[in-house]
């Protein structure tokens, strides 16, 4: 598994991005930050996109793997490789948010070493359509952080 910087034609990765977020929201950040294609050999199997908050904090805005590659350790490998790149860029902390209803994501981020640090109440109420996962409405965003440097 390797990460390949995507510098143009980000629209081509929309099918992957849509696995993790709603199109209207994606369009707000699609051309910001750094996007990487997740590559297995010569095949793109997902994407990861980071947006800097400031010179020390970066947000993991979107990470998505094709369904057939989930649960096999690739997501955690992406986090590990990403952290190496982010440390080299001088970041000290990575943050990420996910819905209160995203049970699998809540487990994934904690297993990957992130810790809960806050809740953005009513965040998902701004989406045009209600989102339901696991029989739960996505209402609040659970925020995680991982310290990666001094």
UniProtKB/TrEMBL annotation:
Protein name: N-acetyltransferase YvbK
Domain N-acetyltransferase: 1-146
InterPro entries listed in its UniProt record: Acyl_CoA_acyltransferase, GNAT_dom, NAT_camello-type
Enzyme nomenclature, EC number: 2.3.1.-
UniProt source species: Sutcliffiella rhizosphaerae
GO MF terms, alphabetically ordered: acyltransferase activity
Tagged with keyword Transferase: yes
Record Pfam families: Acetyltransf_1
PROSITE patterns documented for this protein: GNAT
Record keywords, A-Z: Acyltransferase, Transferase
């Amino acid at each position: 598994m390797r990460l390949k910087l995507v510098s143009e034609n980000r629209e081509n990765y929309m099918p992957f991005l849509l696995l993790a977020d709603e199109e209207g929201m994606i369009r707000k950040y699609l051309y910001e930050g750094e996007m990487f294609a997740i590559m297995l050999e010569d095949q793109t199997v997902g994407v990861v996109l980071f947006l800097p908050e400031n010179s020390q904090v970066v947000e993991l805005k979107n990470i998505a793997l094709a369904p057939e590659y989930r649960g096999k350790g690739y997501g955690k490998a992406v986090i590990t490789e990403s952290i190496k790149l982010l440390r080299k860029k001088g970041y000290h902390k990575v943050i990420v948010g996910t819905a209160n209803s995203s049970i699998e994501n809540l487990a994934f981020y904690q297993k990957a070493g992130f810790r809960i640090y806050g809740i953005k109440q009513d965040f998902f109420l701004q989406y045009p359509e209600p989102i339901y996962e696991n029989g739960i409405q996505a209402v609040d965003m659970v925020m995680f952080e991982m310290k990666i440097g001094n």
